[in-house]
Amino acid sequence: MNSRVVAVFIGIFVFSLTGCGGRQAEQTREYSILNTLRLPAGYQGSGIDARGSLAYISMMATGSQTGARSLVIANLEKPAAPAILSATSSGLASDMAGIVVSGTHAYVPFESNQGTNFQVWDVRTPSSPSVVGSTSISCPAGMFPFGNPVLYGNYVYVSCFESEVTATGAFDIIDVSNPASPAVVATVPVTADYQPISLSISGQNLYVVATQGGSTTDYVLLYSIANPTSPSAVATVSTPHSPQWVAAQRTVAVVPIYDGSELQIVDFSNPSEPQTYNSSLGSCHPQSGTAYTGYMVFLPCGSPGGIALVNLAKVSGPTYSGTVLGGTVFNFLVASGPFLYGLDASGNLQTMGF
Question: Residue 253 and residue 266: Cα distance in Å, rounded?
């Protein structure tokens, strides 16, 4: 792709994060990887949350490691030279499913269907975080906590999923108002015979992508969480098979479709008549970990890698502007300020910017 075009769209991204009004100014600088930080050997990131100058990374094994997984905290104060502040054992050998952080606490589910599989961490001292509470999430038979958790007030929402199971899945709601004693307060089943693979919250809207292994049609579900412990179903929209993720801002949800090499955009501003649009992603087969910030959607591509860019300044007319950083396969992306941070398939934290 022409580097001038890439720079223009990344300029739009940076401009949108500043909150400035008026016309979006063009940038003529190129977007590149500024730093590669190696995570603990033998592991790779399974989720990332960036808050201020810190990145919080949950971990999963890349081989036959049997030891406890660690929570990694990195200092992003110098984005071109991030540094690991701590890599702290969870005491649990299951892979971490993902992570969400709020204030002085991080919330981490684990991919296990038995025993302790949810932890609350005190992260007020990034160099020495500690587990302060834990509980067991009881998923439907054969399923386990999966993907990134999401947070609304004092409640954490966690998907229950397993790709080889065809039974009805659910998401659990955990009350974390007392960090030392988190408690599951509700289990909410989704569409019959489907399973929730990804969750996103914007305002009082909870967006859920539900998938079924052998189906040709999957779904995006909208719930109201005005009552956080009793979500009410508001709308259901079908998606092409193989949705990977859901990210949302206000009433707009974006869903990458792996098989179709496309991004589906669903506008729920009128929940009784949701509007669906899509954008082709060329040769990019999008994976999990999509970031949606400002007007821009950033989608990690499967082999040979890269990040696809879609501009949603006009939701009904999305603009695909090609891919950047080809050759690197990212599992997850997060935006913080004018930078993107990505967890790649080789076990690195990548900083991307100008």
Answer: 5
